[in-house]
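Input (structure):
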């Protein structure tokens, strides 16, 4: 709920950012459809009472799916001059044009929620049946292309693929990437305060990687072998794992009576094998010393020792054992004591903590939502409640910003932001009309 009486409501923001079946994260700064933004935003549309629009968001995202199954991180549905790097820089020849990397696939988990909590049962069944096969292919792509050696730990080829662009986790691996050898003009720093955005040093390497993908014709085998940035990314691994669990549950429970388990039998078998691999492989990323999980630079074979919210996302996937979950629970109080408008994306005691620079310290509400679910799933109810309260406090201070200064609550980045509005509608302050008439939970179990 926004503190500013004249400010647009969360639902108004979704409508303002609706460009016809897809919702831009915010106008100007991000003028296209982004992968995990779209998924989170679909929850907002549902909570605002527009279930058809929620499913439409999913369908429009899937319009960008590549033949090999990848769902890209940006779908360039239209033209826009306010964004760099746009379609011409990515150089992907398809319609609609897209970027050439993906993003954390929270989509499957969102679809399970849309299906289970939707009031219009006929619509939910029809849309699930129409979209689920594409999302199964998406998950198969991740395991096949990004974990060809079956470690149980998929990797990313770009910091943007983690969705956490300039997290301190990527400082080490990014140092192994050369800077781009060409002039370019950034658009982001003309639209928001540069002190809230990544530095030129990082951008030069981001753009190098984009060119590298293009020069290698986006060939999966070549990229796995030669990409100078290859990171087993703890947020990607965790969100993918939770999504796979949700996909398998949707098919097996078959609450919609669609016979999904038999039509997708082979795919389900493969997904379950990948699940088992991750359940084992994740333990290599646990740090007994820091008390959380870490990403791993697969090229340099180095664990990336930074305490970040990403490192607690295995909770969302049910991956930690009880002792590990407790350890992560003990971090939360300290984390919030120093940065109360939490949960700061990087632990405030880290030397790399910067409370308002993008992924180096601000709080992001969709991450908080996943963490709160994770803590709750592990019986850590108080930690979940603290994270939820801190999220409400951010909105109360600043309204619907992209992210929040975790020390002061000040809104940062883009304003009138879709995923923040959606998290308010769905999670933090749902309308009574949504909660009161919530459809009875279906029998679908997630475990
Ligand atoms: C930034 C964020 C990314 C998000 C995108 C659109 O690049 O780091 O996570 O998806 O903006 O909001």
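Output (sequence):
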């Amino acid at each position: 709920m926004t503190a500013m009486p004249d400010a647009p409501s969360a639902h108004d923001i979704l409508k303002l950012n609706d460009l016809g079946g897809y919702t831009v994260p915010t106008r100007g700064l991000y003028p296209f459809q982004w992968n995990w933004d779209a998924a989170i935003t679909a929850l907002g549309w549902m909570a605002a009472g527009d279930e058809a629009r929620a499913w439409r968001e999913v369908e429009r995202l899937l319009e960008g799916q590549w033949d090999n199954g990848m769902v890209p991180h940006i779908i360039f549905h239209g033209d826009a001059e306010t964004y760099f790097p746009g379609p011409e820089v990515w150089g992907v020849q398809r319609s609609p044009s897209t970027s050439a990397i993906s993003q954390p696939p929270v989509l499957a988990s969102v679809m399970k929620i849309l299906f289970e909590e939707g009031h219009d049962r006929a619509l939910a069944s029809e849309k699930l049946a129409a979209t689920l096969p594409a999302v199964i292919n998406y998950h198969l792509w991740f395991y096949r292309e990004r974990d060809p050696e079956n470690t149980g730990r998929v990797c990313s080829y770009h910091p943007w693929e983690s969705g956490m662009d300039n997290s301190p986790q990527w400082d080490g691996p990014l140092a192994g990437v050369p800077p781009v050898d060409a002039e370019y003009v950034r658009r982001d720093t003309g639209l928001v305060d540069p002190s809230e955005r990544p530095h030129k040093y990082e951008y030069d390497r981001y753009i190098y990687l984009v060119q590298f993908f293009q020069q290698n014709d986006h060939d999966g085998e070549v990229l796995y072998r030669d990409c100078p940035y290859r990171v087993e990314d703890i947020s990607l691994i965790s969100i993918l794992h939770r999504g796979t669990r949700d996909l398998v549950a949707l098919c097996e429970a078959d609450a919609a009576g669609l016979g999904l388990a038999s039509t997708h039998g082979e795919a389900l078998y493969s997904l379950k094998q990948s699940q088992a691999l991750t359940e084992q492989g994740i333990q290599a990323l646990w740090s007994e010393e820091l008390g959380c999980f870490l990403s791993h630079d697969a090229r340099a074979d180095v664990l990336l020792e930074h305490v970040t919210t990403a490192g607690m996302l295995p909770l969302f996937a049910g991956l930690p054992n009880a002792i590990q979950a407790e350890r992560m629970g003990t971090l939360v109080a300290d984390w919030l004591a120093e940065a109360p408008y939490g949960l700061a994306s990087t632990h405030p005691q880290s030397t790399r903590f910067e409370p308002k620079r993008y992924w180096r310290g601000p709080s992001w509400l969709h991450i908080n939502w996943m963490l709160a679910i994770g803590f709750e799933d592990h019986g850590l109810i108080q930690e979940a409640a603290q994270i939820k309260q801190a999220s409400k406090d951010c909105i109360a201070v600043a309204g619907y910003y992209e992210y929040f200064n975790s020390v002061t609550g000040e809104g940062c980045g883009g304003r009138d932001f879709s995923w923040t509005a959606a998290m308010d509608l769905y999670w933090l302050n749902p309308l009574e009309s949504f909660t009161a008439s919530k459809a009875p939970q279906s029998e679908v179990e997630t475990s």
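Notes: The first helix runs from residue 10 to 16. The first strand starts at residue 33 and ends at 34.
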